[in-house]
Design a protein that fits this description.
The structure holds 3 protein chains of 3 kinds. Chain A is built from 4 helices and 7 strands. Chain A has helices spanning 3-28, 73-77, 116-120, 157-165, and strands spanning 55-58, 65-66, 83-91, 97-107, 126-129, 143-145, 152-153. A 3-stranded antiparallel β-sheet of chain A has the order 3-4-6, with no helix packed on it. In chain A, strands 1-5 form a two-stranded antiparallel ribbon. In chain A, a hairpin with a 5-residue loop joins strand 3 (83-91) and strand 4 (97-107). Chain B is an alpha+beta fold. Chain B has a single domain (55-368), classed as Cytochrome-c3 Hydrogenase, chain B (Orthogonal Bundle). Chain B is built from 16 helices and 8 strands. In chain B, helix 5 runs antiparallel to helix 12, helix 5 (101-129) packs antiparallel against helix 15 (355-365) and helix 7 packs antiparallel against helix 12 (262-284). Chain B is globular and about 65 Å long. Chain C has one domain. Chain C has helices at residues 9-22, 25-62, 78-88, 99-118, 134-142, 145-155, 159-190, 195-200, 207-210, 212-229, 241-244, 254-278, 292-300, 303-322, 330-358. The chains are: A alpha+beta, B alpha+beta, C mainly alpha. At the B-C interface, helix 5, helix 6, helix 8 and helix 15 of B face helix 7, helix 11 and helix 15 of C. The complex binds iron/sulfur cluster (2 copies). One iron/sulfur cluster binds at residues 56, 77-80, 82-83, 111-117 of chain A.
């Protein structure tokens, strides 16, 4: 075996190892490059993208009113059956029978965050919420009723719909 | 006939068998290798899969075409976008819908971003398989900007069911282009570090050069595609040979290595990251304005017949085969996933080598287990 | 009594005299042994736990992370909390294990590392025993630990453990040679095997400086070989986690696992301390002949701090190795030893003998 080749190998090896150690050494003395965030403490400062898919929520306005008319399209479109709509038939002031939502039940545990329900909702009444801390001890807690208790449907919903269409 | 059966393994009762997996740090998921050892040397390997079988193909038969999309995310979760794209393209081709240029560009950009993110994660995990634990954190750190881009535009970081037949769910975020440009600049600076840390390292080279040589013939007959196949000189880049979306408009080269060893597969992936950056650079400035989707009927019915579309995921060729009888649900969907084919070459590559080589070889094939089992 | 942090000799003599004057020599000996034992156990626990902490901090910094930062200020109490957790964990009973050997193995490993610290000179006059064949003794006990590892792998009756143990055996047996030969080079320089004499011989400069090129070569070889001997990355084949899950201690749980874990860190401390003593002058301050002002400043730093500082430096280098390099394969590991380290080492020894003969080193 050629003795020069042997020593060449040894020095080549040391050089290649040193190249790697330079990279790690570079970072080891730069605490400024640390990327870890102190999570529970920095809750206030978290940057959450505005389109972040945390959970499906129903938007309510200041008068505790929403715009869901209980049509059930979201329920139909959900691939996992994570949404159940329970609607009531009531007779309104004009004497016509009308469908109103009783409970919009959303199973977070079965949701795969595909956005189909939100995309297909004709009245834009559900949207993505930004809450992401979903860990609970009891999985029943993951079943949520989206329309808040005592809420009612916004009256101007029909106009909203028409403007949307136009 | 003999040729077909030459791989069949004959077990003996006094073999020293070790079960690697289903819970093992280097199988990257619930895959089980049944190893027969002769000291440190591996005599044969029998891969057992199916631990994470979810019956996605069967589930597809009960769902509409829009609903299928989000299931495809879950094969190869690291190339979620490409999986979505395969179904969307198949449906669009069947309906003969021409999607707007903007959609094509965005899809291509996303596919390349996703490919880089996936290769980064592979790089981390591969380094880990070989015992270099720091690569893991560097790779994840550099993957973060991509995931942030995804999060900003589609709300989720990994499984973004962002495609739908006819285009995209919604338009990308206004910051999209700027962030990608920032990322390209950042990552071009960082990539040489990967080379210093691992590629040039003498220990790494000793462990990978000449190990697990996959010949071109074997790659073709086993259907090993993606960077693993291209490391053996198998020209199988779907983007190049059957361009879809905006790939026909960009100029890129197909990465080919002829050695077929672990190092060639490694280099193929590293070079693909560079190439993806080039593709991104060409596309991101020329994104045309326009609609992000074409109007589709709420219920899509494909005309009776069968449709096939293939795309290049980060791990190889994904084929989506849809048989329709004219209903709103497909009659049968079959996915040809790259990892399933890539996995079964492992016995050929690793038997006769050491255990440590088996880990390196299976790492270099870049297996994602849910993609194998579906 | 005069307590002096620059020279412990008078302090230890005072303790000895006080004891012998109040009891018979036999009892005095016994009490001294007990004191040394207690001090070493405490030292062992503190060093072991804080090395784990140091390792986690160093690797965190290398990897752009924060490392432990929850328990106590800067996470300083984290490893202590971990120890309590391990103490409270169940000791899992292995059905087909050889119970006696299985329980014995962690103790052998930990005792071997205990025996090694006995001979280390921590400061002037601060060592438990100053053998005249100190270096020889250190070789002998530091390779005892592998018996524990082999026993652990064999007795736990698990295939992964067995492979890990066999790897470890092959590794330690071969690297022992290089460690020995690398230390031998300094024995040639200083002409003594007694650790205190070796340290004294470096009063006018450390051997790595005085012995120039050959000493640097043997220092590098010692670093590599001792990293391998302590089963640390990139030579951690015995517990290669991506191949063998945890190697020889796969089946251990609770405090028995903690023993292996502590012993690993303690061994790292020991080899670093040996390197510091032999190559970097032990507790000797850094002196440059001629610069008296600086030498005086250096003398103000207590010897114990010098010793610990040098050890910490070498430990840092070993951690730096571990968190940078990929792991070797078993045959490459043996090739590295027999084809590269050993021949280089032998050549180096011949070179050193020649240099010493000609007097071509800084005296
Ligand atoms: S996001 Fe998808 S899975 Fe979740 S509730 Fe809506 S439709 Fe169902
Ligand atoms: S949320 Fe929308 S889609 Fe669902 S029931 Fe209400 S209005 Fe209909």
């Amino acid at each position: 075996m050629n003795i020069f080749k042997y020593f060449g190998e040894v020095f080549g090896a040391i050089r290649s190892l040193w190249a790697g150690m330079r990279v790690t050494g570079y970072y080891s003395i730069r605490p400024g490059k640390v990327v870890t965030q102190k999570y529970p403490e920095n809750r206030k400062k978290l940057i959450i993208a505005e389109r972040f898919k945390g959970e499906v929520i129903m938007t309510h306005d200041a008068n505790n009113q929403h715009s869901c008319n209980g049509c059930g399209i979201c329920e139909m479109n959900c691939p996992n059956g994570s949404i159940e709509i329970i609607s009531n038939k009531i007779t309104n002031a004009e004497g016509k029978s009308e469908r109103v939502i009783d409970k919009h039940i959303y199973h977070l545990s079965m949701c795969t965050f595909c956005s189909l329900c939100i995309k297909t909702c004709p009245s834009n009444s559900i949207t993505w919420g930004h809450d992401f801390e979903h860990a609970v001890f009891d999985r029943n807690k993951l079943t949520k009723v989206l329309n808040q208790p005592g809420s009612s449907i916004r009256k101007e919903i029909k106009e909203v719909k028409e403007t949307k269409e136009a | 006939m003999e040729e077909i059966f030459q791989d069949i393994i004959i077990k003996k009762s006094d073999d020293y068998i070790i079960n690697m997996g289903p819970q093992h740090p280097s199988t990257h998921g619930v895959l089980r290798f049944e190893l027969c050892l002769l000291g440190e040397t591996v005599k044969y390997i029998i891969p057992h899969c199916g631990y994470i079988h979810r019956g996605i193909e069967k589930m597809c038969e009960k769902n509409t075409y829009q609903q299928i999309i989000h299931l495809t995310d879950r094969f190869d979760y690291l190339s979620a976008h490409m999986n979505n794209e395969a179904v969307c393209l198949a449906v669009e081709n069947a309906l003969e819908v021409e999607v707007p240029e903007r959609v094509k560009y965005i899809r291509t950009i996303l596919a390349e971003l996703n490919r880089i993110a996936s290769h980064q994660l592979w790089w981390c995990a591969f380094g880990m398989d070989l015992g270099a634990l720091t690569t893991f954190f560097y790779g994840l750190r550099d993957r973060e900007p991509i995931l942030d881009i995804f999060e900003e535009s589609f709300g989720s970081r990994l499984l973004h069911s962002f495609n739908c037949p006819g285009g995209l769910m919604h338009d990308v975020h206004p910051n999209f282009q700027k962030k990608i440009k920032d990322f390209i600049k950042y990552f071009r600076k960082i990539l040489p570090e990967y080379d210093q840390l691992l590629t040039g390292n003498i220990i790494f080279q000793q462990r990978s050069i000449g190990m697990g040589i996959l010949s071109k013939e074997d790659a073709i007959s086993y259907g090993v595609t993606g960077p693993s196949g291209r490391g053996s000189g198998f020209k199988c880049d779907v983007r190049k040979h059957h361009p879809y979306s905006a790939y026909s408009k960009v100029d890129f080269k197909e990465i080919l290595y002829t050695e077929g060893d672990t190092f060639a597969r490694y280099k193929a992936r590293i070079d693909e990251m560079w190439e993806s950056l080039n593709i991104l650079e060409q596309l991101v400035d020329n994104m045309p304005a326009g609609d992000y989707t074409v109007k589709m009927k709420p219920i899509i019915k494909l005309p009776a017949g069968d449709y096939f579309q293939r795309v290049e995921t980060a791990r190889g060729e994904l084929g989506c085969y849809i048989v329709s009888d004219g209903n709103k649900n497909p009659l049968r969907v079959k996915f040809r996933t790259p990892n399933f084919s890539n996995l079964f070459i492992i016995n050929k590559l690793a038997s006769g080598n050491k255990i440590a080589d088996l880990v390196a070889i299976s790492g270099s094939l870049d297996l994602v287990i849910p993609d194998i089992d579906r | 009594m005069d307590f002096n942090i620059y020279d412990f000799t008078s302090f230890t003599t005072w303790v000895h005299n006080a004891l012998t004057s109040s009891m018979s020599p036999g009892w005095a000996m016994f009490v001294e042994l007990a004191i040394v034992g207690v001090v070493f156990i405490a030292f062992y626990a503190v060093i072991g736990l804080y090395l784990v902490y140091a390792e986690r901090k160093v690797c965190a910094l290398i990897q752009n992370r924060k490392g432990p930062n929850r328990v106590g200020p800067f996470g300083l109490l984290q490893t202590i909390a971990d120890l309590f957790k391990l103490l409270m964990k169940e000791l899992i009973y292995i059905k087909n294990a050889d119970k006696f050997l299985f329980n014995l193995a962690p103790f052998i490993v930990i005792i071997a590392s205990f025996m090694a610290i006995a001979a280390l000179p921590f400061a002037k006059g601060l060592h438990a025993i100053d053998l005249n064949i100190g270096i020889f003794y250190l070789f002998a006990v530091s390779s005892l630990g592998v018996i524990g590892i082999l026993l652990a792998g064999w007795s736990s009756n698990s295939k992964y453990s067995l492979i890990g143990a066999i790897r470890s055996g092959a590794q330690v047996v071969s690297y022992e040679l290089s460690v020995g030969l690398a230390l031998l080079s300094i024995v040639i320089f200083s002409g003594s095997m007694q650790l205190s004499t070796i340290v004294e011989s470096q009063a006018n400069g450390w051997w790595i400086i005085k012995g120039h090129i050959p000493a640097i070569i043997s220092f590098l070889i010692f670093l590599v070989a001792s990293t391998a001997e302590t089963n640390r990355g990139p030579f951690d084949l015995a517990e290669a986690e991506s191949e063998l899950t945890a190697g020889f201690h796969t089946e251990y749980s609770g405090i028995k696992f903690a023993f292996f874990f502590l012993a690993e860190y303690m061994n790292m401390f020991i080899v670093a301390a040996i390197a510091a003593t032999v190559f970097l002058g032990g507790w000797m301050p850094f002196h440059i002949p001629g610069l008296d002002g600086m030498n005086h400043v250096m003398d103000y730093i207590p010897p114990f701090v010098w010793f610990m500082g040098k050890t910490a430096f070498i430990i840092f280098i070993m951690m730096w190795f571990k968190w940078t390099f990929p792991r070797l394969r078993i045959d490459q590991l043996l090739k590295l030893e027999w084809k590269y380290l050993l021949p280089l080492n032998l050549m180096n020894i011949v070179l050193i003998a020649f240099i010493v003969l000609m007097g071509w080193y800084i005296k």
